[in-house]
Specification:
The protein has a single domain, classed as Phenylalanyl-trna Synthetase, Chain B, domain 3 (Phenylalanyl-tRNA Synthetase, Chain B, domain 3). Helices cover 32% and strands 25% of the residues. The protein is built from 6 helices and 11 strands. It has a 5-stranded antiparallel β-sheet with strand order 3-9-2-10-11. A hairpin with a 4-residue loop joins strand 7 and strand 8. Helix 4 crosses helix 5 and helix 5 packs antiparallel against helix 6. It starts with a strand and ends with a strand.
Length: 230
Amino acid sequence: MLQVSISEKVANGCPDLCILVLTCKVKNTESDEQLWEEITEEEKRIRTSTKLEQINKWLPIQATRQAYKCFGKDPNRYRPSAESLRRRILRELPLYKVDTLVDLINLVSIRSGYSIGGFDADKVNGNKLVLGVGEEGEVYRGIGRGELNIAGLPVYRDSIGGIGTPTSDEERTKISLETTHLLMIINGYSGFDGLIDTGKYAISLLSKYVSATNIEIKVIQGKEQKEIVL
């Protein structure tokens, strides 16, 4: 399994951070109508239970925003993806249909409040990722966003450069219909509570919609790494 570690700067700035790393083999497809029925139901639930001004006060999102502030990034200008998705729902804007894997990851993010990295594991360069902080002038192409200024954002880097931030993942390692090896990283800046339940939910969707096999899971907190079974 790919090695994932947390830099000292991030560990010191975000002492509650817990990360769930999941890899599996998958069979991706065009957007699945049954999955979209689940997404539509989740949208309805959010619209009846949440107000726009409450989104950034929800603990998983609030903690991610606090991480941005800690490293000098304005979370109102560069919103965490989970917050952006919920804001779209409450503003009655349609969610993007991409493919089953991406849609599925978005559903997990919407329900949990975690900003989740989803990558084609075969496009990651090298055998390790390190979570650090973006620097001025660092080249990063956000998916569908073009050049993204990631200075002050938490960023996962492989041996070439950045591949994922809570705002947007990078074009270089993005999921496609040809993806057969998924890397999913669930970022719990608010701590361990809720992380395992979210992992179980993700596995249930992956098994149901993309025939996930060879599932491996690891939880990382600071320098501690522990493989688990869900």
